[in-house]
Amino acid sequence: MKPQYSLATLMLGLFLLAVFPADDGKGSGAEDSRIIKAIFDEVLVSAESYKLLDHLSNQIGPRLSGSEGAARAVQWTKEVMLGYGFDRVFLQDVMVPHWVRGAVETAHIVLPSGNRVDLKVTAIGGSVATPEGGVTAEVVEVQGLEELTALGKQRVAGKIVFYNRAFDQRSVHTGRGYGGANDQRVDGPSRAAEFGAAAVVIRSVTTAFDDAPHTGMLSYKPDIDRIPAAAFGVQSADKLTEALRARGPLKLHLELSGCWLPDAKSHNVIGELRGSEHPDEIIVVGGHLDSWDLAQGAHDDGAGCVHAIGALRALQRIGYKPRRTLRAVMFMNEENGLRGGRRYAALALENQEKHLAAIESDAGGFSPRGFGVTASEAAIDKIRSWLPHFDPNTISYIEAGGGGADINPLNKSQGIPVIGLITDSQRYFDVHHSEHDHFGAVDRRELELGTGSLAALIYLLDKYGL
Amino acid sequence: MKPQYSLATLMLGLFLLAVFPADDGKGSGAEDSRIIKAIFDEVLVSAESYKLLDHLSNQIGPRLSGSEGAARAVQWTKEVMLGYGFDRVFLQDVMVPHWVRGAVETAHIVLPSGNRVDLKVTAIGGSVATPEGGVTAEVVEVQGLEELTALGKQRVAGKIVFYNRAFDQRSVHTGRGYGGANDQRVDGPSRAAEFGAAAVVIRSVTTAFDDAPHTGMLSYKPDIDRIPAAAFGVQSADKLTEALRARGPLKLHLELSGCWLPDAKSHNVIGELRGSEHPDEIIVVGGHLDSWDLAQGAHDDGAGCVHAIGALRALQRIGYKPRRTLRAVMFMNEENGLRGGRRYAALALENQEKHLAAIESDAGGFSPRGFGVTASEAAIDKIRSWLPHFDPNTISYIEAGGGGADINPLNKSQGIPVIGLITDSQRYFDVHHSEHDHFGAVDRRELELGTGSLAALIYLLDKYGL
């Protein structure tokens, strides 16, 4: 990708410098409005984030940590930012876990007649394989970890545990419904292993009612047997629960062939626009470059990556010269290890870097709705005072709490304010971690409004501090 | 469709009556919060609006005024509301314009070599037919009505005028971009006819960059020749403008065969929940039942219809007994005549009905963002004071101005406060009036949040008045 400076860009830059002369640091509402309008005009017309996401999704595709796709994404995002002429583009080395999905992923109900009912299934990320030929055992259905515990070892040992508690549709923000169901995926396997289960299957953690299985990470506890774990599409989970209800005890056959490889070398990718007044003060905007392996990771979190690059690119395109240093960071390994986010925070401490704030976009490329902020009350109030600069159809609220998995280590280790972009969450868990998370599920304008909202927030942080 | 009362519904109703006893009229914040939570729980879990929209879109489909689809939609929505046991369901007769799209809709560029370049085209709604065999004439491209006027009669007479000004992508709310371009479609044909043009073609008024033509209404001025008018898909418009740029003057061939039939008898469809304290005071919530003919009219405005029915249904399901009379109104003929909306206002006046307020949903079944209110400042302030009852991921602002095409006559003739549901507008004009406005373009949860927001507003209006 080549730099795309055109005469029009240069003229726009000169125009903006003429219209927005260097101010006295206190700023003016009218000037802010004009710059923020210029940002949104730029992103909605150029659609640069959307073009980047097209490439990342359709030309690179799945990017699980350690995969070839992840390595290509590292190289490509670096080249994109070099092509834009960012002031500095560099990599941070990080060793990442390397799990590989197996070629075999099958499950079926074994009917007493000997007939079978095939189910749509995928391994939960990080699952060990079944023995070759699979495991066949009686199914015990539970609606969550509590019910499993109540059943006890005697009724679980040797069986396949089926966690079937559904995503609670009632929360307006679907993140809450997700949080209320994904303990089955994350903690369910080890909990079942404690009771001697042979394997675990779960109802996919999704708002959808289709049959696409959704993967995601599990967390094996130390010193507990690692048993195979897989997720059903919702319709397959319904088939199984209906069969159990109609026929009583049934056997399930499950075969998975994934495996763990040694940790792999990978990278965080960082691009900077250098500050003119306080180059040592850093504002981070980031997303995670790795994705699950079932699709292109367009929403999760290709969107966050192109939001971050696109936000800096938009500021550059309108000719804005930052006072502080702005960093677009593509974190590696959010999905199954968080090594990149932890590494970034460790290096920030080691290098005695001064971070003003860190922002993450990891809620999909949907229309922006708000920002969630973890910071002092005064800092939250200051950010809230900027709300009038945002069209209410973009950012309409600032709430206390929030950030992002990759930037939270900065907050935990050094108290750096962290901010998460909150997008409209209604469609997110339809596609999240499934085969449906592809470029076609992203709307151009919705994505670009996210880029604009981030660029506007960065501009305000850069100008007014925190 | 049969009534769907279940034991669970009855128990929920009894539970709510116990939890929310009749209050003293002043209400309490906690009670309001509980009822509004119950509303959102109900719509997100039952997804009743979504189920209705599935039927309206996939079983009935296109419903242009005067069509068989429109007649079936009238009967079906009436039956649905009867099936729900609404207190009163009735029709209002209204005569509607009856335009029928022709079987022939073709356009191509005639190259000097005699070869042709086919373009994707559809008649603008209401267009007269070309002579049989079509019209072939030189194209004159303009970027809008002003440029046409500047060209003058000499350079326009006998030619096909090509209005090619694009949808301005910069406005965050796409309604503004639409308003800035659709004068070419609405007024363009008569303006061109004044200068002696043979026909009009336009670039479709859309945010998309695909090749689906978007129809919509034109307005022929009295005493001016009615000339044929059609809309190109954006890619076809680009082909034409590029060909003109590359090759100079070119001829275009256009053939359309639509026609006008005599006005047809049709209906507004109205369902009521009768008020217990002030049955003579009416709160209207409505959408328009007619749609353009190129697709299912799922967003425009099937969504508004199922929002209206669904909002009353949700209040009924949670056991809420309204103080005032609540009306779900399916207006007929918004798209090409507005006869239903005018008829409703005329009958309201004639019958001396007292309307507290009227709400319309006609911005698609996307996530709600706000309400636009045309009313006294005091009334707007009162509605704004209810904002804290809404999750900011649903209704996050109340703005002055707004309403809906079908309810505005109530405001104009009698000063009745009118309120429009503002939804996230980013995807609306991708599908609006085109073949893409089908059920698959509607997200279940986004649609239901609209239903919930309307039901919550109705509840607050009913309880506190205006």
Task: Describe it.
- The structure is a homodimer of 466-residue chains.
- With 466 residues, the first copy, chain A, is of the alpha/beta class.
- The first copy, chain A, has two domains: 7-98 and 262-464, 3-Layer(aba) Sandwich (Aminopeptidase), CATH 3.40.630; 102-257, Glucose Oxidase, domain 1 (3-Layer(bba) Sandwich).
- The first copy, chain A, contains 16 helices and 16 strands.
- The first copy, chain A, has helices spanning 7-19, 29-46, 48-60, 68-83, 145-151, 153-156, 174-179, 183-186, 188-194, 234-247, 298-317, 339-350, 377-384, 408-414, 428-431, 444-464, and strands at residues 88-100, 105-110, 116-119, 121-123, 135-142, 160-163, 199-203, 229-232, 251-256, 259-273, 278-288, 324-331, 354-360, 368-374, 397-400, 418-423.
- Mean pLDDT of chain A is 94; it is low at 1-27.
- The interface between A and B is medium-sized, with 30 and 30 residues.
Secondary structure: elements and pairs:
The structure is a homodimer.
Chain A: H1 7-19, H2 29-46, H3 48-60, H4 68-83, E1 88-100, E2 105-110, E3 116-119, E4 121-123, E5 135-142, H5 145-151, H6 153-156, E6 160-163, H7 174-179, H8 183-186, H9 188-194, E7 199-203, E8 229-232, H10 234-247, E9 251-256, E10 259-273, E11 278-288, H11 298-317, E12 324-331, H12 339-350, E13 354-360, E14 368-374, H13 377-384, E15 397-400, H14 408-414, E16 418-423, H15 428-431, H16 444-464
Parallel strand pairs in A: 5-6, 6-7, 7-8, 11-12, 11-13, 13-16, 14-15
Antiparallel strand pairs in A: 1-10, 2-3, 2-9, 4-8, 5-9, 10-12, 14-16
Helix pairs in contact in A: 2-16, 3-11, 11-16, 12-14
